[in-house]
Design goal:
heterodimer; A: mainly alpha; 13 helices; globular; B: alpha/beta
Chain lengths: 349, 513
Amino acid sequence: MRLEPIARPSATRIAGLPALALVGTIAIAMALAALAGADPVHVIALIVKGAVGSSFALLETLNRATPLIFTGLAVAVAFRAKLWNIGAEAQLYLGAVATVALGTGALALPAALLIPMIMLASILAGAFMLLGPAFAKTHAGVDEVVTTLLLNFVVLLLVSYLLEGPMKDPAGMGWPKSERLVAEARLPRIVDGLRLHWGFGIALISAVLVWVMQTRTTLGYQIRAVGLNPKAAAFAGIPVSVVVIKTALISGGLAGLAGFSEVAGLKGSLTLDLSPSFGYTGIIVAMLALLNPLGVVASALFVAGVFVGADSMSRAVGVPSYIADILLASGLLFMVLTLMLTRYRVRWD
Amino acid sequence: MGNLHEPRPVLRLDGITKRFGALIANDAISFALYPGEVVALLGENGAGKTTLMNILFGHYTADEGQVTMAGAPLPPGQPKAALQAGLGMVHQHFTLAENLSVLENITLGTEALWRPSCAARQARSRILDLAARFGLSIDPDTRVGALSVGERQRVEILKALYRDARVLILDEPTAVLTPQEVDALFATLTRATAEGLAVIFISHKMHEVLAVSSRVLVLRHGRLAGEVATIAADAQTLAEMMVGGAVDAPIHRAGDPGEARLALDHVSTVETGHRGSLRGLSLTLFAGQITGLAGVSGNGQAALADLIGGLALPESGAICIHGEPVSDWSPRAALAAGVARIPEDRHATGAIADFTLTENAALERHAEAPLSRGGWMNWRAAQKEAEEIIDAFDIRCPGPDEPIRRLSGGNMQKLILGRALAPGPRIILANQPVRGLDVGAVAFVQARLIAERDAGAAILLISEDLDEIMEMADVIHVISEGRLSPAFARGAMDAAALGAWMAGEGFEGSNAA
């Protein structure tokens, strides 16, 4: 078996293969639903309905998509520079810690000042979290996959300590939970009465800003150059290490914003289950979006919809909601395969 | 039985055709190879030489056609069968295990694993016998890692002979050799053909083809463009057959050197990997002069290029620009000082394959006006620059938005050249600027370098191709093991004399200036 590159893939190939990938993904989900003893078509219909079938479902999906847009952007920015940031989870939690540290009464300011300050603090906290691994990579050649991944566990333990100790809510009945944010620190809702907070708006703005940064600025150009060919970038006079560090700051900051948005927009306090793996799911979101910042918004909505829809379906017919993980995982695998097949033809000889 | 008058071919190709998508890499190629002859296979890059050899060896399967070895058809797609039938190949990039001895490398894969080592003595005597017969002196117990490039090539040839090769294929065998080593190789080939071996000699160097072969086959665009007896051929007609038209050689005009633009003062560097190191080397580049740097690959050329290009700092010694020693030296500082750089490896360092022509053209100057202002890219200006380079350097491409990986090597090199020359450089570092290019692109690049020289640029031309150096350079230095020979004026030394310096002779007594 050999792969032959295709110089110019045809339109049918470019459009048809992703469609096939979608069909394959759904087929796998349906087969699993049938295995669980449910009517496959009904299960898929319930997932779709649970994700977008009502205004409640839709808002739930948008809320769930918000942190995924941030972590997806964090991953997309970093991966462009081939900085493999697997630590968005840790950066998210540190952003949340910063939010709680400043937002529970330490600063008595009006909302118009307090919220931007807390945002900035959460960005700095997330950026700080990725700075160490980035320096270790550029100055000592330490693999950032290892450092960022392991720091996730370190930070989770740190948060656990904080919630049992210095940040513990005295009125929390002994639960490991922080005090609630003061009202001035809470993100308002976009439309009164609808359960959707401004975190979603900030996420959309971030996506546009990242897109502008990547396509219009010298830094974005340098990031792409360093990611595609660091040797050629260095030869052309681009300071590769500096670019990697800057990328790390942006990526970590975006993930820190995810923590801010979840605490200040949705939960109001910090607990150990703030993130059901938003940091890791951000990797799927970014990959599905082919690292395109605007694509991240679409893929975050899709991923969030699958999760929300599967939860709802699971409550209705009793098929485990793990089917959402399988849907996303198989979808990602199919897409990677599809991408390869649009550029290569398989020859059997 | 007409065998005596009409010898049977040892290898026959009949109508070999190979397509890759729309590209026809080999188009109905047929020829026969007879025992005792050296056939040169001549062709530009992309003419289909490599594809044809890969089909011979079973790495590719031909879409049409048949390979016959000594009357028996060769099963397609089976490298093992090709080896057993007596095809032996010496690749351009050697396939030897450096940590094994010569003996082990040669016998590797020929001995059954479960046979005891008593065969080693037999193997050794067989290798020594072959070495003596073909003039390939070598110690079978030396580790291959300790051998020079020329010696490694001998091991590769011995490896083929040890496997009873009846057809020996040499792919660009002289690219890495000094002239003396080339002579030794040719002597070996003469002995080999006298013993009845058939040799296919792949090259694009005319004078070697003319010296060693008895017949020349010319490939062009995948087709057999011609076949001539070597006695009836000359370099000019062969070049025209290769490109399918007239070729203009660059006309040399003696330059009048101006002031010193860049000087290296007793620089030394630390050995890093296989890039070689410099040992107290001094070199001055003058305005309006092409300084040629000849030498066998790996003698410090890469380290020297890194220094001048701003990628490295000397361990000791100084780099002086216009007489002033530089303190802050980086690719950006080099660019600011007016150094244009054409890197050795255009794919790995010269360009970013997935970037468009516009993006590649902007690489070195994207951080300055007009390409950017205050951190914002001006893509319209960048595209305009790219279009200007495309026009001025006759780059064949669908447009500036094309990814550069879709371009041929020659067109890619033209973009790199255009990018480097656009700011009007005062110093040009051209490291292997025409390696792997087709004849037309070679002539173009060389003419541009000469034009820059005439316009007053100081040029350092690094090449492993001595002919290129002798043709282009006004003064020639030879580099060997990080040391520099004195400057030789153009025409003062012939290839043999320079070859002696390339082999490391003459350095002890001399005090390189």
